[in-house]
Amino acid sequence: MNGDAVGRLRKLLCALHARHGYCQGHNYIAAHLLLEASGEGSSDEDLFWVLAAATQTCHGMWSETMPLCQLSVAKIDSQLKARHPALAAHLSRHAVQSVGEVARPWLLCLFAHPSIPQAWRTWLWDLMAASGAEFTAGEEDQARAHVALAHAQLAVVVIAARLEARLLQTT
What we know:
- By secondary structure, the chain is mainly alpha-helical.
- It contains nine helices and no strands.
- Helix 1 (about 5-15) crosses helix 2 (about 25-35), helix 1 (about 5-15) packs across helix 3 and helix 2 (about 25-35) packs across helix 3.
């Protein structure tokens, strides 16, 4: 991965999204795209347009009041409570009131955070793509991207559920 390439993507994205500019989470998305595209012959321009479309489609994640992020946090928490009440109660007893809040750094970079293993990052992006996310600027595409993001949010709940047995046994 080339830091110069991330820098070039950052400058171009700032120019494109003058209102909300470039956010820290965008670095992780750019780095993820560069890593995934390495050796595939993708140009910086190709990567820029994917990054630009992803950040435009999910702009509510980074806008001033972060409505898409807030909604995502709430959805993760409600899904965890509905699907895994014992785990939700256990986490609550240990002062983890919101798994969604814990997942916020993952949300702000569309699950491209380096704390997520590479295989999981690829799986989550594949899940979003398979769910119909087309990172373009049209309203219909934004709706599909939000559905895809919801599927990825549900995947966070699934990951937590897989850890449930270990968490409940250790404390």
